[in-house]
Amino acid sequence: MPDALRRIIHLDMDAFYASVEQRDDPSLRGKPVAVGGSPTSRGVVAASSYEARKFGVRSAMPMARALRLCPELLIVRPDFTRYRAASQSVMAILRSCTPLVEPLSLDEAYLDVTQNLWGEALASVVARTLKNKIHEATGLTASAGVAPNKFLAKIASGWRKPDGLTVIAPERVESFLQELPVEALWGVGPVTAKKLRALGIQRLVDVRDFDEISLQQTVGSLAAWLKRLSHGDDPREVKPDRPWKSISAETTYAIDLGNLDQMKLELAALAKKVANSLHKKNLLARTLTIKVRYGDFTTVTRSHSAEPTRAADAVAARAAALLDRTDAARRPVRLLGVGAHGLEEAESSSPQQLLLE
Q: For residue 106, which phi and psi values (nearest 5 degrees)?
């Protein structure tokens, strides 16, 4: 279907984790809140309220730095049980409108409402109705972007946060693109943006006329994709059953680990989390990866492929064997992670798999 005929919504919950905390604890409302770990134990910010963002507090920031930026910051430990419950309510509302819902995380999703269960022709009306239903059901606000494709809808949803609604009609696409900096291009992070700006590419539309060979030398295979996006062209469809590519779990420790046996116990606990996730999603993993970050912040990974499994003991054993292939016995470790890759659907009735579990 041509882009001009598609009606795509990107819906993004506003400061989701922090908003759930403020909703459930009235004493937090209107105050700077950060969800995450302790500032004294290398905790990081998982989410921040809009009051905290005014001080520069952002996700993935060390909590100690966040506290320096905002001494009045209220720190709350994350409660993913409540976040998942709120997310399930939101996703149920989205699916009441269309089966074409592609969740990206607990707090955001794409919807294709070109044809929808409500029989509503105007995507702007659909988006506004979804926002109202979400607020009525959860007490939370969401921002939505409406556009002919995913790329534009995603940008639009962040245009007027919080509680925003931005519609980019087909006839407005070009004028909208003209306003955007090069960082708005999908796949362009701070490092790539710096390289592009060094070439004189300041705005998104500057990519259009730039020599493609020179662009390839800077961004590699991304060049053709960026050229396409610079014209507002994104053919990606909303895929409701997007397959899982990997499942992982990791922990940063308050005090560096120096004992190999202790590290293997920690890996076993992480392996159990990964195995439980595989089981819930009815998946098997062929490849297992561990991540080890030493005390000096050097990070290494090790991986191994074998018969697909989701058995916690098997995942833990393979993780322990991979740890022996690192310098962990001789160097302090601050972070450990376990990842499952090469995922495939399990046959629930397989006797052999039942024995493994």
A: -65, -25
Domain extent at residue 325: 246-356
Query: What CATH code is carried by the domain that includes residue 215?
Result: 1.10.150
Q: 148 and 234 in contact (C-beta within 8 Å)?
A: no
Give me 1's structure tokens. 């279907």
For 293-349, what is each residue's pLDDT tens digit? 999 888 899 999 888 999 999 999 999 999 999 999 999 999 999 999 988 887 643
- Tokens coding 247: 């499942």
Res 235: pLDDT: 92
List the catalytic residue out of 108, 171, 179, 357: 108
What CATH number is given to the structural domain containing 45?
Answer: 3.40.1170.60
Joined together, the tokens standing for residue 111 give 């919807």
CA–CA separation, 338 and 249 (whole Å): 6
Both 8 and 154 in a single domain? yes
Domain contains 186: yes
In this predicted model, what pLDDT tens digit does every residue of 194-247 receive, in sequence order?
A: 888 988 889 999 889 888 888 888 888 888 888 999 999 999 999 986 667 788
Query: Which pTM does this prediction carry?
Result: 0.71
> 74 and 129 in one domain?
no
Q: What total of structural domains would you count in the chain?
A: 4
DSSP E strand stretches across the chain: 8-13, 33-36, 45-48, 74-76, 101-105, 108-112, 142-147, 165-167, 246-257, 283-294, 299-309, 333-345
Cα 188 to Cα 73, 119, 185, 336, distances in angstroms: 31, 37, 6, 28
Buried b (16+ CB within 10 A) or exposed e, 81-94: eebeebbeebeebb
344 assigned to active site: no
Tokens found for residue 47: 């989410």
- What is the rounded distance in angstroms from the CA atom of residue 46 to the CA atom of residue 257? 23
136 with 255, same domain: the answer is no
29 within some domain: yes
Residue 238 in domain: no
Bond from prior residue into 103 cis (ω within 30 degrees of 0): no
